[in-house]
Write a structure and sequence with these properties.
Blueprint (H helix, E strand, L loop, with lengths): L1 H60 L2 H9 L2 H10 L2 E5 L2 E3 L6 E10 L2 E11 L2 H8 L7 E6 L9 E8 L2 E7 L1 H49 L12 H18 L3 E8 L2 H8 L1 H18 L5 E6 L2 E7 L3 H17 L1 E2 L2 E2 L2 E7 L6 H17 L5 E3 L10
Length: 391
């Protein structure tokens, strides 16, 4: 018995060292993933908030009331309009409204009789309230702070910093105390596993060492797999397939309708060839923000690959999905990023009772192919019926 114990000490020490190293590395990778994921989520939420403010400014710029005030050069009306709508107006070199000292801005050109006369500036305050909205859904232990002019310092904690707007960014980080606590918890788990392994290895050391290492490696691999597309912040293809499978199951259970929209940007290669792949990435991120801003709560927006996107629409029939796809198409066609413009072709399909993920997406893909064949920048629907019974 003493000989067996002495023989078991060396492999136990070696296995414990490997487990501690892998577990600490796993904790570190998990923290890195959580803070980066939280920063991406906050960046996406911020983009949606700023897009809504910019859309409000666009609506205000086209207001007949504002146009009339500009024609009359009524400073009182311009000031009142700016304050009532929470905007800044810059007309003929004068500014109307309250300028926030610490805010991200989106500027919309003001045009009168075909000539530029100023601009409408939408402001998104970078304060505690906005930070709380961006923090919704952040991983446990991850904190967020603004960086840049007047923002919180980056600090030395493990984290990730992403840009939000000019001179401003968002930093997601895990405090030293939280990271130390998670590392200590990992050490405790390893010690407990080592004690259990000691009792087992006294009987069967070599047999149990390999499964333990395999189990810990599997845990590390599972923790490191991402479900978010790094470029756009949307769900990636793997996450989409899982979500769509769950929605199909739920639609069967509650007899709900389910639709998908498969969207492809037209002649996207021309953007990459003319402006460069970096500009193409900017366009993909801009389209991603448009899709998420137009989607309903409960819808899923994902990047299928390249310049293709998928929107899952629970409890939506074919007519409603077609209207939604047309809204997406018109919005993308009207939106420009600098000098870049693009359009989109959409394929719409609804679920049949016997559909699985592959069949539903395949139907939408066929409709998208039809839209491309019919001249692009259009929406086509998949006309489907019950499949004939097998002979």
């Amino acid at each position: 018995m003493l000989t067996l114990t002495a023989v078991a000490i060396f492999p136990i020490a070696f296995v414990s060292y490997v487990i501690v190293r892998d577990e600490v590395r796993n904790v570190t990778h998990t923290i890195d993933f959580e803070v980066h994921n939280a920063a991406l989520a906050a960046q996406a939420r911020f983009a949606r908030l700023l897009d809504k403010r910019e859309l409000h400014a666009v609506v205000a710029a086209s207001s007949p009331r504002l146009q009339a005030a500009i024609r009359r050069r009524s400073t009182a009306s311009l000031e009142r309009f700016a304050r009532q709508n929470g905007l800044l107006l810059e007309v003929d070199g004068r500014t109307y409204g309250r300028r926030l000292t610490y805010a991200a801005t989106a500027r919309v050109q003001l045009v009168s009789h075909g000539n530029g006369v100023g601009s409408v500036v939408a402001q998104l305050p970078l304060d505690k309230t906005t930070l709380q909205r961006l923090s919704a859904g952040a991983a446990n232990g991850v904190r967020l702070a603004f960086t840049g002019r007047g923002g919180a310092p980056a600090g030395t904690e493990r984290g990730a910093t992403l840009p939000l707007a000019q001179q401003f960014g968002i930093r997601a980080y895990v405090p030293h105390r939280t990271e130390s606590h998670r590392r200590n918890a990992a050490y405790v788990r390893v010690v407990e596993a080592g004690l259990l392994a000691l009792a087992a290895l006294m009987l069967l050391t070599l047999v149990l060492a390999r499964p333990l290492l395999r189990a810990f490696r599997w845990t590390e691999e599972q923790a490191s797999e991402a479900r978010i597309d790094a470029l756009t912040g949307l769900a990636n293809r793997r996450a989409l397939e899982e979500i769509l499978a769950a929605e199909i199951s739920r639609a069967h259970r509650f007899t709900h309708q389910l639709a998908v929209v498969l969207l492809d940007l037209d002649r996207f290669k021309e953007i990459n060839d003319s402006f460069g792949h970096g500009a193409g990435d900017v366009m993909l991120r801009a389209v991603s923000r448009l899709l998420t801003s137009l989607a309903r709560q409960g819808d899923t927006v994902a990047r299928w690959g390249g310049e293709e996107f998928v929107v899952v629409l629970p409890e939506t029939d074919l007519a409603g999905a077609s209207r939604f796809a047309e809204r997406l198409r018109r919005t993308i066609e009207a939106h420009s990023v600098g000098e870049m413009r693009t359009s989109a072709s959409c394929g719409v399909a609804t679920m049949l009772p016997e559909d699985d993920v592959e069949a539903l997406l395949g139907a939408a893909d066929q409709a998208l192919y039809q839209a491309k064949s019919n001249g692009r920048n259009r929406t086509e629907t998949a006309i489907r019926g019950p499949r004939p019974a097998a002979a």
